[in-house]
Specification:
- The chain has about 450 residues and is mainly alpha-helical.
- It is built from 20 helices and six strands.
- The radius of gyration is 30 Å and the shape is elongated.
- About 40% of the residues are buried.
- It binds arginine (ARG).
């Protein structure tokens, strides 16, 4: 039996080489989108007067039969031996409605067909990832609410920096994840262009109403140039970038969870259900799922750079190299979905160790507060920094912190210190003194929490 292009050749293709070029195992995920695109194409051919109403009706209902058959029994695809998903659909169609089915591909090329399929696919799958992202933001909000007014150290250079509300830390991830959501939205917008009418490369000679096709398929616009369209997979690169960036985020989150739940930090307890044990060391409770998230981020970056490398040397127009896009995009999609789910499950079930975090936020990292205290009493900041630094060094050398100082001790460093110093140099006072909208001040954090909740509601609808 012939394949989609056998007319041009005298001999059957080399079986092994033909198998090498097959993509059905991968592009079978596009089967629904392929049928959707073909139904619209047939309508456009009918409007152009290329197909009779009877043929049009027969092909569309035949395609819908194929769609229903695959939905009812996906193993239909396991058993198929076609070159790709387009060949599969066409063969199944002809098997159902006979020779009329052979009119489907009139005026169309697989180059534009795979483009429309993949654009339709990403347009409906990206929102699924976005919803998983919203669930993770919700897990952050759950932790932020659970934390209440609890404090913990923030870090720069992985050294204790300043006290912050624990809620502020969770909302910092939420803020970043919202950028990841936007990045996926940008990729979705880029995929949202209708390529049909481009033909193999030069366009089509039938009077195809591309605006009608865009409307029917729900695209917001039509591609601008047939040559550009046939070789354009920028939208795939944008999707892979959005995935890689989000995976990079999840990797950093995973690293923080691994650190904060370690014996050394002890800020949070990992739920047993999302931890793993050791076959040898009975005391161990390992954060394997978080390590796997961190590990998979490496792959996501590899997929993006691999795809850019594939595209960089291609001459204008369609080249078969482009077929590689789908395996990469599907693996990025699956990994991101799995990692978002895992991170949500882990974050949602963390138990905060409030006392440990407060103790860690109470030490010498209050030195900025000491300096600010003197500034409040008229000392220039540089001089105040000097005094505070001197106190911190003395305390550090004696293994003590600010809470060990009596009023006389304070005043030996500077006469501007008075009784007020005891109430001012605590994690709560430090946090309470922050005033800017993006700061860790309790009312600012409460407002940010409310806005994040609103965002979640908006995204859910
Ligand atoms: N399987 C191909 C792809 O994914 C479809 C387009 C094939 N076109 C061609 N001329 N070989 O890119």
């Amino acid at each position: 039996m012939g394949n989609l292009w056998s007319g041009r050749f005298d001999v059957a293709p080399d079986a092994e080489v033909f198998d090498f070029g097959k993509s059905l195992d991968v592009d079978r995920r596009l089967v629904d989108d392929d049928i959707t695109g073909s139904c619209a194409w047939v309508q456009a051919l009918a409007s152009a007067g290329v197909l009779t109403p009877d043929d049009t009706e027969a092909i569309v209902s035949g395609l819908e039969e194929v769609r229903a058959a695959v939905r009812a029994d996906p193993t239909l695809l396991d058993r198929a031996d076609d070159e790709d998903v387009h060949a599969f659909v066409e063969r199944e169609l002809v098997a159902r409605i006979g020779d009329t089915g052979k009119r489907l591909h009139t005026g169309r090329s697989r180059n534009e067909q795979v483009s429309v399929d993949f654009r339709l696919y990403l347009r409906r799958r990206i929102p699924v990832l976005q919803q998983a992202l919203v669930s993770l933001v919700e897990a952050m909000v759950t932790q932020a609410e659970l934390a209440g007014q609890a404090t913990m150290p923030s870090y720069t250079h992985l050294r204790r920096a300043q006290p912050v509300l624990v809620a502020h830390v969770w909302l910092s991830y939420a803020a970043a994840l919202r950028r990841d959501w936007d990045r996926l939205e940008t990729a979705r917008h880029e995929a949202d262009v209708m390529p049909l009418g481009s033909g193999a490369i030069a366009g089509t000679s039938y009077a195809i109403d591309t605006e009608f096709l865009a409307r029917t398929l729900g695209f917001s616009r039509v591609t601008l140039n047939s040559i550009d369209t046939s070789g354009d997979r920028d939208f795939v690169a944008s999707f892979l970038y959005a995935c890689a960036m989000c995976m990079t985020r999840l990797s950093r989150l995973a690293e923080d969870v691994i650190l904060f739940t370690s014996e050394e930090f002890g800020f949070f307890e990992l739920a047993d259900a999302v931890a793993t044990g050791s076959s040898l060391m009975p005391q161990k409770k390992n954060p394997d799922p978080m390590e796997l998230v961190r590990g998979k981020a490496g792959r996501a970056i590899g997929v993006l750079s691999g795809w850019l490398a594939t595209m960089k040397g291609l001459p204008l127009g369609y080249n078969k190299d482009l077929q590689e896009d789908k395996a990469l995009a599907f693996s990025a999609e699956d990994d991101l979905a799995g990692c978002l789910m895992t991170c949500s499950a882990v974050v949602r079930t963390l138990t905060p160790r409030t006392a440990v975090m407060r103790a860690a936020a109470s030490g010498l990292l209050l030195a900025t507060e000491v300096a600010d205290y003197l500034v409040g009493r008229g000392l220039p900041f540089r001089a105040a920094h000097e005094v505070s630094g001197k106190i911190a060094r003395d305390l550090y050398e004696n293994g003590r912190d600010f809470s060990a100082l009596t009023l006389e001790d304070w005043q030996r460093y500077h006469t501007l210190f008075d009784e007020g110093v005891f109430a001012a140099i605590t994690p709560e006072a430090a946090v309470g003194a922050r005033l800017t909208p993006q700061s860790t001040g309790p009312s600012q954090v409460a407002a940010a929490l409310a806005l994040t909740r609103e965002w979640i509601e908006e995204m859910r609808n």
